[in-house]
Automatic annotation (TrEMBL):
Native source species: Bacteroides thetaiotaomicron (strain ATCC 29148 / DSM 2079 / JCM 5827 / CCUG 10774 / NCTC 10582 / VPI-5482 / E50)
Gene Ontology MF terms: RNA binding; RNA methyltransferase activity
The name this protein goes by in its record: tRNA/rRNA methyltransferase
GO biological process: methylation; RNA processing
InterPro entries the UniProt entry points to: Alpha/beta_knot_MTases, MRM3-like_sub_bind, Ribosomal_eL30-like_sf, rRNA_Methyltransferase, SpoU_MeTrfase, tRNA_m1G_MTases_N
Length: 252
């Protein structure tokens, strides 16, 4: 059974302030919760009796068996699904060696939680283990972001820092960004290490970060020269560019 205070606490995790103070985040649904259990310490888990019976070895500080009605009152989703859990936020250390030795993503002021979650899911698919975010990028532990990762948050480490300072620390490592005046990415040799910078949904990559990018790329439309949409959604653009990086790596 869930008390009113517990339901109020779960709802409060929609707020960044509460998540930061408590150093926790909320995940909902059997697939997402199942993916995260074992990766992050679980402080609290609420689930229906059928779900708990199917998962007898769950490790959590507190477990509550609840009815579907109780779960609906606690859930932030329109359609609650059997289980929700509160996990501890991980603490990661950021190193420039990540981008010197492997391919990483950088996000410059991404604002939409769904876009961030989808990009984390894409990074997981393409084997990118680190995403470096500007301080003004949306909070990775926003419940909408967590849901959109589809479990990718268990394998992709997300860091927040000053992007200009981080890029300066990379030395001669390649720093890529997509621009309308960039080089056709399908005609350029792409490395297996470095930093791919993706920009804000409305404004693209900021001027300060743009000045530090040493490999400007362009995702061409088809056929070239035809009038099309002004730009791609940032998550879609990330998928296209990551796919080409990995395609070239596979053929080397």
């Amino acid at each position: 059974m869930l008390s009113k205070n517990k339901i109020k606490y779960i709802h409060s995790l929609e707020l960044k302030k509460t998540r930061k103070e408590e150093q926790v985040f909320l995940a909902e649904g059997p697939k997402l919760t199942g993916d995260l259990l074992g990766h992050f310490p679980c402080r609290f888990l609420a689930a229906t009796s059928s779900w708990l019976q199917a998962h007898p070895d769950i490790q959590a500080n507190e477990i509550a068996e609840v009815s579907q009605e109780e779960l609906s009152r606690a859930s932030l989703l329109k359609t609650p699904q059997q289980v929700l859990a509160v996990f501890e936020q991980p603490q990661y250390t950021l190193s420039p060696d990540f981008a010197r030795q492997s391919l990483c993503l950088a996000l410059d002021d991404i604002q939409d939680p769904g876009n961030l979650g989808t990009i984390i899911r894409l990074a997981d698919w393409f084997g990118i283990e680190h995403i470096i975010c500007s301080q003004n990028t949306v909070d990775v532990y926003n419940p909408k972001t967590i849901q959109a990762t589809m479990g990718g948050i268990a394998r992709v480490k997300v860091h927040y820092t000053s992007l200009p300072e981080f890029i300066h620390s990379l030395g001669d490592a390649p720093v890529f960004g997509t621009f309308l005046d960039g080089e056709n990415m399908y005609e350029q040799p792409l490395s297996t290490n470095g930093l791919i910078v993706m920009g804000n949904e409305g404004n693209g990559i900021g001027k300060e970060v743009e000045a530090l990018i040493n490999r400007k790329l362009y995702i061409p439309n088809y056929p070239q020269g035809k009038e099309t949409s002004e730009s791609l959604n940032v998550a879609i653009a990330t998928a296209v560019i990551c796919a080409e990086f990995r395609r070239q790596a596979a053929w080397k």
